[in-house]
Amino acid sequence: MSAFVTEWARAQGQKGATSKSTPVFYRNLEAELDVRRKRGSLMRPHVKEGITDFSSGDSLGLLSSGALKDAFLEEFKDLPNGRMTIPGSRLSDGNSKYLEQLEKEIAEFHNAENALVVNSGCVANMAIFSTIPLAGDAILYDELVHASIHDGMKNSVARCQKSFLHNDVDSFSDTLQSIVESEPQIRNGTRSVIVSVESVYSMDGDICILQELIDAAKEILTHDNALFIIDEAYGTGILGPKGSGLVCELGLEKEVGIRLHTFPKALGSTGSAILANDTVKMMLMNNARSLLFTGVPSFPMLASIRAAYRLLRSGSTIESQNKVQHLVKLFLKTIRSHPVWERASSLGILRIPLYEGDDDPEVVSQILPIWTRAKHNLYLAFHVNQAGYSGYPVVFPVVPKGQERVRFLFQAAQTDEHVKAFADCICSWAEEMLEIEDSGDLNRLPTAARDAYAIMSEFENNSK
């Protein structure tokens, strides 16, 4: 039994009603957790071993190949004075020549004026959106931007905050026009519209139509008072020359005011870098609470980031970039040519909305979500994990109700044979679901789901 399925089953036992002897505070917490248990969406950590990875962000294979480890150990030898960190925040005692040099190298790689390295992408987004938009500014954001951007906006003094339909230039234009009409300071050019997008959307895998949005903003805002902010978390290492991101791929470095590159995914490290000019960097360092009241990244963390960037600059990851493109396209070709695909997709048993109507996409991302019917994404996740492939269900509130899916990520470490077998594995689940559909017994569960629920019952019985 896979570790994912075992720990899922262990997590689902209802506890709120059976914990009367515990203090009310903890009973209330358990009652909240029971809401997730009732939906089958409470998760416990598990250790992934002996399984083919289709879920982690190691897209370039820097971790699985050992390339980053070797580069890190070489870089680690040159750390200043052998110190692990400098206690203090950036504006007190936490600054160092090593950190400043790393930021300079990152900025040069992405053709940016300056860089600010911080502890995580979430911290960076909260810092940016709570600090950069000023009173009187407006924030216009894609409806699918990351939760950390929403957290930052909650603390922003910019009261005009509006979303536009995902990756839809018409909705963007209409919403931007409504902001111009309702906000006099935007209309007269004394305040700005802050536009928030992502290069690759994490739950959908599609790529931002950045050029179209910039062109539309220029047409509508006669004072050229739009500032674009792009989260390149999943574009880093995958898109652009040597993995420099979507903005560099499109040559829009001068058109985008702030870029966020994060490192725990394709670069196999931790932390993030905010790319901007000196004015933005000074504003963040002096006014962003999430940066003011925290310590600087440790030297080992900085060394791992620097090691990853050295691999990018050397060009040694270009082959991996190209291989990810090949593997995703191979998967699409394989699954679409399977005999079960046409009927299963027409019935909604499994779908790939991202590529519907696009038989030969020119550029793809490493993220490929497979949509299912409601609650069936859990069944598909059970099936692939039991078959030796990792993949996890994505449920509400991470995605809207009715848009359940299992999100898979492709990696250069995978082979053509891995990808073809993986596509066949998913199609075997679809065949079983069609067999259940044809039988008319809609209460019947697929095999892997029956096994998972049997383990859950066993845990519940043992806990009584």
Q: Which terms summarize this structure?
A:
Aspartate Aminotransferase, domain 1, 18 helices, 2 domains, three-stranded antiparallel beta sheet, alpha/beta, Aspartate Aminotransferase, domain 2, seven-stranded mixed beta sheet
Compact overview of the structure:
The protein is of the alpha/beta class. The protein is 45% helix and 11% strand.
Low-pLDDT sequence parts:
none
What proportion of the residues form beta strands (DSSP E)? 5-15%
Q: What is the typical, i.e. mean, pLDDT?
A: 94
Structure classification: alpha/beta
CATH superfamily of the largest domain: Type I PLP-dependent aspartate aminotransferase-like (Major domain)
Terminus-to-terminus distance: 23 Å
Number of domains: 2
CATH class of the largest domain: Alpha Beta
**The CATH topology of the largest domain is what?**
Aspartate Aminotransferase, domain 2
Helical content stands at: 40-55%
Per CATH, which architecture of the largest domain? 3-Layer(aba) Sandwich
**Major beta sheet summary:** 7 strands, mixed
Radius of gyration: 24 Å
For the biggest β-sheet, the strand order reads 1-7-6-5-4-2-3
Dominant shape:
globular
How many distinct helices?
18
Order of helices and strands: HHHHEHEHEHHEHEHEEHHHHHEHEEHH
Number of strands: 10
